[in-house]
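Action item from last meeting closed. Structure (412 res):
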């Protein structure tokens, strides 16, 4: 998809989108646009950063940074904005974070848009494990969530051309000086320290790259998560605790093993794009090893184990319009995405979206994300489908995740 350098003439503005869709909270619409376009910080904004208070460091499978810029932003209603600076596509200029009348604000085209604040770092961030590893290397944080990325590489990238075309994991791993697999002991120690901070966390979250090996395909990945979740479960007296696993899509037997031997409460396996032909093109490794239809069927069987409202799948919204094989118009893409989302939701599986951030190092890094209006229409549609089928996705709401504009709409 291309919008040309005069993109403001070819798309509805933020103000016009807010006016056209009054049922979508302005906070949600702003969040989408900032994630879609990225941010830059003025010197005045950076002077407001206090490394003793704010998160400036993060290490994960997708995103490593250690500088003076904030990890991310928070709006007045508690909505998180995941923004990684200037994005690879430069058709649309980024938002500017500046200081106006003593307040940190988002500025677009010279106009202040909304007040924001910087994420505050948790207490454990300045501590080390017994092995001397900085705890922020082991477990990252969101404003109300512990985030664990135990495998920071993906086996699909071991075969040239098999990685997902929007994914930056391989580029991030090669650019960083870090192990692919974290030590389970370090993870348990860090989580044990993190949960001591009162009122900070509402959920423990795990995700990472695919591990294909084992007696059965993906058993190595299952073993890793069982080891970690078993150790964390002990911190909660062996009981089921607020938690989410985002992984490759496992077989019914593998999922049953995880559920029965750990305290995991919710499960997600991201299908990435809601179209079989585009799935085969964009996610060739997943297509070859599992397949689109089998991916969906495994999600449906997961509901039998975890229960309705405890299973969902994510899409990278916007990649369905990537050139040259994507949909040619936003209307066509929207109709297809929502039709397939409804079919999946009718089986009790929630469908949630994140905003496609066109990042350097990905196969798609020269592409351009869709319009703001497209994302708002998609978010409204996904929210309406979940309401229709009475699917609760609190596992991915604004407090536990904050990455999905459509689940933010569930607050309304």
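Sequence:
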């Amino acid at each position: 998809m291309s919008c040309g350098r005069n993109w403001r003439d070819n798309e509805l503005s933020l103000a016009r989108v807010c006016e056209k869709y009054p049922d979508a909270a302005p906070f949600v619409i702003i969040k989408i646009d900032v994630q879609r376009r990225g941010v830059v910080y003025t010197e005045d904004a950076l002077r407001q950063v206090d490394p003793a208070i704010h998160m400036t460091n993060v290490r994960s499978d997708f995103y490593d940074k250690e500088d003076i810029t904030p990890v991310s932003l928070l709006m007045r209603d508690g909505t998180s904005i995941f923004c990684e600076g200037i994005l690879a596509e430069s058709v649309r200029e980024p938002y500017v974070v500046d200081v106006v009348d003593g307040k940190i604000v988002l500025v677009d085209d010279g106009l202040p848009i909304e007040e924001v604040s910087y994420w505050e770092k948790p207490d454990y961030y300045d501590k080390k494990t017994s092995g001397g590893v900085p705890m922020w290397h082991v477990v990252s944080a969101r404003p109300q969530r512990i985030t664990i990325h135990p495998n920071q590489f993906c086996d699909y990238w071991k075969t040239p051309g098999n990685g997902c075309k929007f994914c930056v994991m391989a580029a991030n791993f090669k650019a960083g000086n870090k192990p692919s697999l974290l030590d389970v002991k370090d993870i348990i120690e860090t989580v044990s320290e993190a949960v001591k901070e009162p009122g900070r966390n509402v959920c423990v979250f795990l995700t990472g790259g695919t591990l294909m090996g084992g007696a059965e395909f993906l058993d190595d990945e299952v073993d890793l998560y069982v080891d970690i979740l078993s150790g964390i479960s002990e911190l909660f007296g062996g009981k089921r605790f607020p938690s989410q696993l985002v992984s490759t899509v496992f077989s019914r037997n593998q999922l049953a093993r995880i559920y029965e031997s750990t305290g995991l409460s919710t499960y997600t396996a991201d299908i990435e794009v809601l179209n079989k032909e585009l799935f085969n093109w964009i996610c060739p490794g997943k297509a070859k090893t599992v397949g689109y239809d089998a991916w969906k069927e495994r999600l449906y069987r997961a509901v039998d184990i975890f229960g309705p409202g405890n299973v969902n799948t994510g899409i990278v919204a916007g990649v369905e319009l990537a050139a040259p094989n994507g949909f040619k118009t936003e209307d066509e893409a929207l109709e297809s995405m929502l039709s397939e989302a409804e079919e999946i939701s009718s089986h009790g599986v929630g469908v949630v979206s994140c905003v496609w951030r066109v990042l350097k190092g990905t196969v798609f890094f020269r592409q351009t994300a869709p319009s703001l209006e497209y994302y708002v229409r998609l978010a409204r549609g996904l929210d309406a489908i979940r309401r229709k089928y009475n699917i609760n996705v609190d596992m991915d709401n604004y407090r536990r995740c904050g990455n999905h504009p459509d689940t933010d709409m569930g607050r309304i």
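Note appended to the action item: The longest helix spans residues 219-235.
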